[in-house]
Automatic annotation (TrEMBL):
GO terms for molecular function: DNA binding; DNA-binding transcription factor activity. PROSITE patterns: HTH_MERR_2 (PS50937). This is MerR family transcriptional regulator. SMART domains: HTH_MERR. Residues 4-72 form the HTH merR-type domain. Keywords: DNA-binding, Repressor, Transcription, Transcription regulation. PANTHER family: MERR-FAMILY TRANSCRIPTIONAL REGULATOR, REDOX-CYCLING DRUG-SENSING TRANSCRIPTIONAL ACTIVATOR SOXR. The keyword Repressor applies. Pfam families: GyrI-like, MerR_1.
């Protein structure tokens, strides 16, 4: 066995590029000697260090950490290094588990929404739903997107999973009666968790619901249909109607795939 090896030999032996070997020398991890022709010569000690570098790099250690370790190598330092990296890995695993939960929830929600029948009226019962709200005048889709982003920016410390966030917008029934169509006066997020910090509550009760697919130009007609159906079935409307965007431009650029649900709180029972 030779005592010294040239850079190309080390490169082939370890599958490490010569640029990487020169970098290791630059940061002071390796210190090859030079022959009379100024060629780098790597000793058996350098080869031992390369084994350590390779193992620690596979565990995710930075070159600075590896250098500090090699400079003061001992059992205590080895244990401290490994325990510290173990903590980092545990934190990464926790983050990955949270990300996986978000993805699973989004898959479930999107799959359910994609299979939701449209163009039918139903009555749904809900408990109190706390919401965050931004009051603003909205007449165009671009204004709606901007308002949603503004509301999210205000509460992004609380809304970590924006992809699964329930987003809604209020329309004025009075505007609709006056023939003022396509105007919304607020956007809101429905909070999944119970909280004491909210802007308003969608109160517990029965909500008449109607879902439609396609572009938002349908919105005024669909809301009027919902209000007309409530009147026909003898249900008293208790609040302003609102839309919930179950499938929107967070999920698809195909407007025909959009799914919007209109809800309005109604009296518990229709009059006899």
């Amino acid at each position: 066995m030779k005592d010294y090896y040239k850079i190309n030999e080390i490169s082939k032996l370890y599958g490490i590029g010569t640029d990487s070997l020169r970098y290791y020398e630059k940061v002071g991890v390796l210190k090859p000697r030079r022959d009379k022709n100024d060629y780098r010569l790597y000793s058996l000690k350098d080869i031992y260090k390369l084994n350590v570098i390779r193992d620690l790099r596979q565990l995710g250690f930075s070159m600075q950490q590896i250098k500090e370790y090699l400079d003061c190598q001992s059992i205590d330092n080895t244990l401290q290094l490994l325990l510290k990296e173990q903590d980092v890995i545990h934190a990464q695993m926790k983050k990955l588990r949270i990300t996986e939960q978000i993805l699973r929830q989004r898959i479930r929600t999107l799959t359910k929404s994609a299979q939701t029948p449209d163009s039918c009226f139903t009555v749904k019962s809900f408990p109190d739903r706390p919401c965050l709200q931004l009051n603003t005048h909205i007449t165009r889709d671009e204004e709606m997107d901007f308002a949603v982003k503004k509301l999210h920016r205000k509460h992004e410390h609380r809304i970590h999973d924006f992809g699964n966030q329930s987003i809604g917008a209020y329309v004025s029934a009075e505007d609709l009666k006056k023939g003022i169509l396509g105007v919304f006066h607020s956007v809101f997020f429905i909070l999944e968790e119970k909280t004491k910090e909210y802007d308003f509550i969608l109160p517990t009760g029965d909500y008449l619901s109607y879902t439609y697919r396609g572009g938002y130009h349908q919105s005024p007609d669909r809301i009027l249909e919902l209000l007309a159906y409530a009147k026909e079935t003898g249900r008293q409307i208790l609040d302003e109607p609102f839309e919930l965007y179950l499938i929107d431009n967070r999920d698809t650029v195909l407007t025909e795939e959009f799914l919007t649900e209109i809800q309005v709180r109604v009296s518990k029972d229709s009059p006899k």
